[in-house]
ABC transporter ATP-binding protein (Neptunomonas concharum), 223 residues
Amino acid sequence: MRIQVQGISKKYGERMLFSIPSLEIGSGQSLHLQGENGAGKTTLMKILAGLERPSSGSIILNGIDSRSWWKRPHYKVIYLHQTPFVFSGSVSDNVRFGLGYQFSSRRDLDKRVEAVLELAGLTQLAMQEARTLSGGEKQRLALARAAILEPSMLMLDEPTANLDAESIKIVTEMVTSLSAQECCIMLSSHQKTSLTQLCQRQLQLKAGQLLEVFANPEYSKYA
């Protein structure tokens, strides 16, 4: 999976939020997106995930111009908000949401759900009403719900905000596992944590421009 940005911008009325001439991200990369509040980090990630339309420019997905793909976002590109949405029902029900059709048997589905719950440290809470979970548990549940879909790209908006040390540890382990499966990770965070330290590239939105703060030489060609 590869996403290429070609001259995208986002405006609100006369206000230009940002203008980005080019950007390329692909499988196996991990990026830390920085910027002050209001700089446009969330908006940019939503545009890359196909959830919001840019004011101009285009997004190229796997070599195909996807100017209208926000009308039907790619199911392998997932954006997670910093305040995760939780469905009614049990934790297990939430994890298996939308996945049943991909498995030939209930047994295969149950095994996959059990594995993801274990990774998220939620096995003991599998039958608990999901909406009664703590904030950290809900964040792990949302990540588990994404992980079970085996995404190619995952956009994480402040994934460790207000989490305790144990939840940050588990979230980091989950993201590490996804990255090892060649999932591209982009995360925004004001905190420096074990999760941000995993990132190979650091990007900063500042004064409407996207700057490369740091990049492993192997990835600098994507700036």
About this structure: Residues 218-223 have pLDDT under 50 and may be disordered. The beta strands are 2-12, 15-26, 30-35, 56-61, 64-65, 77-80, 153-157, 184-188, 201-206, 209-215. The longest strand covers residues 15-26.
